[in-house]
Amino acid sequence: MANIAKKVSWSSRGDDRGERTPLLNGAEDNKQFSGGSMFHVGRMSTVDLEEEITPEEDIVRSRLKEIPHNEKLLSLKYESLDYDNSENQLFLEEERRMSQMGFRCLEIRRWVICGLIGFLTGLIACFIDIVVEKLAGIKYFAVKQSIEKFTEMGGLSISLLLWAVLNSAFVMVGSICVAFIEPIASGSGIPQIKCYLNGVKVPRVVRLKTLVIKVIGVICSVAGGLAVGKEGPMIHSGAVVAAGVSQGRSTSLKKDFKMFEYFRRDTEKRDFVSAGAAAGVSAAFGAPVGGVLFSLEEGASFWNQMLTWRIFFASMISTFTLNFFLSIYHEKPGELSSPGLINFGRFDSDSVEYNLYELPLFIIMGALGGLLGALFNILNYWLTIFRIRYIHRPCLQVMEAMLVAAVTATVSFAMIYFSNDCQPLPSDSTEEYPLQLFCADGEYNSMATAFFNTPERSVRSLLHNPPGSYNPLTLGVFTLVYFLLAVWTYGLTVSAGVFIPSLLIGAAWGRLCGILLSYIASSKSIWADPGKYAFIGAAAQLGGIVRMTLSLTVILVEATGNVTYGFPIMLVLITAKIVGDYFIEGLYDIHIKLQSVPFLHWDAPPTSHWLTAREVMSSPVTCFNRMEKVGTIVDVLSITSTNHNGFPVVAHTTGDDEPGKLCGLILRSQLIVLLKHKVFLERATSRLQRKLQLKDFRDAYPRFPPIQSIHVSQDERECMMDLTEFMNPTPYTVPQETSLPRVFKLFRALGLRHLVVVDEENMVVGLVTRKDLARYHLGKHGLEELHLSQT
Amino acid sequence: MANIAKKVSWSSRGDDRGERTPLLNGAEDNKQFSGGSMFHVGRMSTVDLEEEITPEEDIVRSRLKEIPHNEKLLSLKYESLDYDNSENQLFLEEERRMSQMGFRCLEIRRWVICGLIGFLTGLIACFIDIVVEKLAGIKYFAVKQSIEKFTEMGGLSISLLLWAVLNSAFVMVGSICVAFIEPIASGSGIPQIKCYLNGVKVPRVVRLKTLVIKVIGVICSVAGGLAVGKEGPMIHSGAVVAAGVSQGRSTSLKKDFKMFEYFRRDTEKRDFVSAGAAAGVSAAFGAPVGGVLFSLEEGASFWNQMLTWRIFFASMISTFTLNFFLSIYHEKPGELSSPGLINFGRFDSDSVEYNLYELPLFIIMGALGGLLGALFNILNYWLTIFRIRYIHRPCLQVMEAMLVAAVTATVSFAMIYFSNDCQPLPSDSTEEYPLQLFCADGEYNSMATAFFNTPERSVRSLLHNPPGSYNPLTLGVFTLVYFLLAVWTYGLTVSAGVFIPSLLIGAAWGRLCGILLSYIASSKSIWADPGKYAFIGAAAQLGGIVRMTLSLTVILVEATGNVTYGFPIMLVLITAKIVGDYFIEGLYDIHIKLQSVPFLHWDAPPTSHWLTAREVMSSPVTCFNRMEKVGTIVDVLSITSTNHNGFPVVAHTTGDDEPGKLCGLILRSQLIVLLKHKVFLERATSRLQRKLQLKDFRDAYPRFPPIQSIHVSQDERECMMDLTEFMNPTPYTVPQETSLPRVFKLFRALGLRHLVVVDEENMVVGLVTRKDLARYHLGKHGLEELHLSQT
After folding, report:
1. Average pLDDT for residues B267-291, to the nearest whole number?
2. Are A238 and A216 in contact (CB under 8 A)?
3. A304 touching B, CB under 8 A?
4. Closest residue, chain A, to B650 (C-alpha)
5. Which helix (H) or strand (E) segment is B658 a member of?
6. Which among B288, B561, B603 has CB closest to A564?
7. What is the pLDDT of residues B541-598, one digit of tens each?
8. pLDDT by residue (tens digit) across A670-708?
9. Cβ-nearest to A761 among B296, B732, B762
10. Which residue has the higher pLDDT, B472 or A580?
């Protein structure tokens, strides 16, 4: 029968408690104020809800979940990944049977999988790139034809209408897919992948269906002319590919290739997903090293050299695949010149050098980027709150997306129409769609190069067009308009990234700075190249919005193919981060917080040394005995209010009501498999009917059936189950007096899901899970505690 | 009084023991065969010997230690760093007193220190570079004068003599410094820093004296014309700078600046040292990202974002400082064009591209590099064994170094003399010392560009000189000769790195490959640039010798300033690593093994799941009581045969002879400080005389006095000490059944020094230290155990 450990008395360390800051006491009062039951549940882990929900429910739930959020809540909806291996007897037996050759084969298989991940991610990137090019080409061709026709005839409003309708149509398709079929595919996917790599099980994030919707969605939204990029979603796509390939089967397609069965557990899967994310970055920016750093910066808690190399391998293969297939597509096979989806182009050797006295200017631009980034994030934060409150029905979401698409087209058209910035058309123009409009023959409208183009091309024009291609007014207006459009667009129910719009905004005002500087400076030759300032501005703006530093530096350096800018970029990004962080967090972090995800940061808050495991842990804990009655297990697993996921297994020394000595830890998923296979000791005498193997657990992974689907007869309820063989006999434990930073470090470094708290007699007194640690954060007034919410 | 826990019976898990492989039993027999006493000592931790030795003894010891080594031994001489923070009451009180502002100040101070580290490392690099340039300039000028004079007169043997004498003189100075003053400064220092970052306390490695000798040594050996580079030692220099700056004092100079006292503990110091190493790489190669990756690849077990950014900051400052001061030195202030000591120069845009069909060629070159690297390592391994056995007296070492210097000069001279590879002198020649010798007027001897030059310049000529500058025979002979010279040179008692010679060898045969290919290929234009092949060859050779992959890729990419080669370099390095690893380990790992350092790799051997903590741990363990008699403590600390470093503190429940319940862990260094300050409960009644603070511990760090220097009177021996306040109350523990990989993961991820093994009653049964884990490695016949040696 289940044994509920007694609630530990809190008074035993009165001295510590007495010294608590009043503020935290306030926070605690708050928590109690917010409802006793909530508090109670908050201190327990809940069931993984992923397993028992149909797609329809899914959508309803994912919409529901978004209503009551604010960043002071912590959702109980999210479970942790089991990054800690359950080293039970089955596992040890399997390992023992395996020869050294077997381990080597496993290692080779890991490399093969990483190669596959890179290859498929590269292919997907290539597919997206080509389809977007084609669709956008058709669209711009049609609109250009129409504009040219109507410029002379009059009646350009028909062209505008055509443009707006085309845009809206594309966006509608993408938005419908995302909103009605797979809402998790919306946005760039980077926050979700960050969470996954952090160890949070985000429902449905790495499913095949998500990938398909993501790809369709991103094609539609880029072709639809929104202020978005196709780079962010590549990271998500890579992660899904990795999760799929490494498991050797698709649960969505109900197809099992009977391959890679060994890797069907969270530990291995997360490693592969980090390789996939890196491959995605690599394909998006042609930045394999940046990809590795991105994965490590976001995900790795424990740096493992072999893993790092595999990630690197996947990244390299990914960019190579993309490069290779694109070179074939561009009919120059073998000429590997497009390593990523975005290609900043090569800077001339002359413009590459920077001078010492430019560094202060770069720093100022970095600060400006930080300010503008913070403004972007604040506006987008408000907008997101508004969306969470009022726009949570799919049809509304689709309509908003279409509206944005139409407005984008209209605004762009207006900008082009009213600008009279005519530039001579160079003979060797790289513009694909130069719009003459009202300009003289042999000239083109320079505002059109910024708006009448895919954002990637616009960025490249801003970086590389010769000085004088743009006039300052054009750039200023463009910055303002595009900034607002981008703020409005991010968070729409479409698949789209924020990298390219950020770069574009930054490149525009950066180029503006360059031009203004050249007016001010006496000797014009020094400031000759506004492209350099456009690049610095792009880096500053992107850094101000997303705030990654190390990986972003490397990504930008690799994307330009030039190391010389490394130092200025780093200065700019650091400045942007410091300035931006003063006002508000990075965009991804904001969205993670708004989802109330229990995200673990790198360290515990510095002022939390006086908090101990005793105060942090969930207690009382539901424990099982080594030999437990089936009925008890079924009953405990069926309680929906206290849906636990991990159960300490205890041995009793004296009485049954005493807390027991810890002898293991068993997971809900393991118990479910045991129940499904009816591994009962019949009337506690004969032996097991069939020897279970790890394979049985792997086959059920990752969608373990819910307890309700398992039928246990009244007779069977009286049987006993021997958990000894299946539990993890050596779970990590900490004493009650351990300080929070120490608990945190152990939990984070080893990627734990459950950490058992024991007293000096090795009796179970509590359980620390992710939520117990993620609750504490450093607010403006010192340590604060987040509230726990059921949704 | 001390309580010795009973030896745990091994028979309790007979089932496990029965299934052991016969091979390991063999290994165990071996171990017992090698002497019972050795085995006994091997299972205990020994005293840190660093503290109590004079410089003279130092040298004798460091020579002694090198005699009986082979790679099957594990030395007990090396201690671990305390990367785990001792969270005792003093620490908690200090943290509690600190405001949030205080923590922010600490963080700012960390950034300031990292900036200083970068700045000073850059300065040192700059100093080395300039002095080497000057000295080498003088030398080559003198020799060139002499050669030009005697070419016509006859009697070139006088020039040869001059050259050989100059070389030997330089090398003698460097070698004497290293051999007689600070032997740890010999070599590149990379193996030592790898060990330090791995958590091994290598004696004297981060002292100021080491730095001074290192700088003098490297200047002398490079100016002395040896086949060495000045890049490897920069990493060591950076590490020393970091260790010094972060502590705010120098124990060598007996100067305490009373700054940064908070950082006087191993945890913080190691973090700064990793920043220093990164700054060193960054200054050496102009590769800040590569530096960060190097530090992480070698050192970090736990990736921390803030730490990574600080490391990156130090790297950036370092390369910037070097660049800035060198630009002033070259009289082009503000023109930042030399970011590193080695500068591969810029590749032309045309030669930068590679083609798809070249990739197989690159892979073949990678394999060749792996083979040649393995050959290099095997030859150097034999040579090192020979040196350990026969050349361990300083004067012999100095003589060997001088001999190598003279031979290098002679061989170089002979090569130049007998080669008749005359090339026309280009008008815009970058050669500083073109030797005409027997060539016609307006021509120069091309062999001389390779030999009569600092190795860095030679590398650059090989990469960038136009096709046709070298004839194949010259390159072939040069490769062979330089290969042998480099093998002989690495491991000499001089400060010198192996990066540049490796690159030079590789560039030579790579260029040779390029030339040969251009003969074979029908269309000559494709293979026009042998410089590209020289670069690939350099990468392959370096990868084959040192075997770092990720960081090396980035370093090479950053050093060329060109991202395009990223993919080929990665292919080449991976191939070189796979091929090389088939034969022998990387050069640094060989030297680490030959020093018998207990180096922890990334994971436990894969086949070790059936080994448990019970079998791995050291037992019995010397424990103390919470209240312990001073006499007992002094006695235990004074036992030289079982010099323990960490002592579990236990509380007794029943009898005194029973093993006690774990309630803390105290370190030798803490006890020493307590004894020194005489923190005794006088006759167990009155309170402490003076309240000790963390400051007292920090002041004594890192050279705690030996126990022998502390006088305790007979009266005082009878006093009691209360350890409660000073011990770490929550040491990490594992149960006895924990498998080795699990213990390993915990130990490695948290950077532990002592891991207490407890039974299910929370009684202390054993202690796991670094040696217990480093002992196991995967040999040819499965799991093998290393022997433990006292020296």
Report:
1. 90
2. no
3. yes
4. A760
5. none
6. B561
7. 999 999 877 888 888 888 877 677 778 888 899 899 999 999 999 999 999 988 888 8
8. 898 888 888 787 644 455 555 777 888 888 887 788 888
9. B762
10. A580
Measured CA to CA, the distance from residue A207 to residue B617 in angstroms comes to 44
Torsion of CA A366, A372, A374, A379, to 10 degrees: -170
- Give the per-residue pLDDT at B725: 86
**At A262, phi and psi to the nearest 5?**
-60, -25
Tell me what the mean pLDDT of segment B629-634 comes to: 89
Contacting residues of A for B610, CB less than 8 Å apart? 92, 95-96
A474 pLDDT above the threshold of 90? no
How many Cα atoms sit within 13 Å of A179 on the Cβ side? 22
Q: Is A778 helix (H, G, I), strand (E, B) or coil?
A: strand
Per residue in A612-638, pLDDT (tens digit) is: 999 999 888 888 988 888 888 998 888
Mean pLDDT within A492-510: 92
Say which of B103, B305, B729 has its CB closest to residue A737.
B729
Q: Which of B84, B289, B753, B550 is nearest to A304 (CA)?
A: B550
Across the interface, whether the CB atoms of B602 and A353 are under 8 A apart is answered no
| Contact residues, A window 95-114, toward B, CB-based 8 Å cutoff | 95-96, 98, 100, 103
B776-779/B622-625 β-pairing = unpaired
B782: nearest CB among A100, A336, A602 = A100
- N-term to C-term CA, chain A: 31
What is the distance between the alpha carbons of residues B752 and B731, in angstroms, rounded to a whole number? 10
Asked if A760's CB is within 8 angstroms of B737's CB, the reply is no
Residues in chain A: 791
CB-CB under 8 Å, B288 with A289: no
Verify whether the Cβ–Cβ distance B346 to A349 is below 8 Å: yes
Q: Which of A90-94, B47-51, B428-432 has the lowest mean pLDDT?
A: B47-51
Helix (H, G, I), strand (E, B) or coil at B200: strand
Which residue type sits at A518? Answer: S
B274 touches chain A (CB under 8 A): no
Least confident of B394-398, B555-559, B680-684: B680-684
Preferred mutation among B353, B555, B609 to probe A, highest tally of A CBs within 10 A: B609
CA pair distance B533, B522, nearest whole angstrom: 18
* A77 closest CA partner among A745, A574, A596, A526: A596
Closest by CA to B408, choosing from B545, B146, B173, B228, is B228
Does B306 contact A at CB distance below 8 Å? yes
- Tell me the mean pLDDT in the region A254-260: 77
**DSSP category for residue B645:** S
Nearest-CB residue to A554 (from B289, B300, B750): B289
- By the 8 A CB rule, do B286 and B343 touch? yes
Higher pLDDT, A112 or B461: A112
Q: Tell me if chain B has a CB within 8 Å of the CB of A548.
A: no
The label of the residue with tokens 């990029």 reads A229
When scoring A91, A105, A554 by the number of chain B Cβ atoms within 10 A, the one with the most, hence best to mutate, is A554
Using alpha carbons, list the distances in angstroms from residue B401 to A274, A377, B415, B453: 49, 63, 21, 20
pLDDT at B692 over 70: yes
Give A287 to chain B, closest Cα distance, Å. Answer: 9
Q: Say whether residue A346 is in contact with chain B using an 8 A CB cutoff.
A: yes
Q: In the prediction, which pLDDT does A536 show?
A: 92
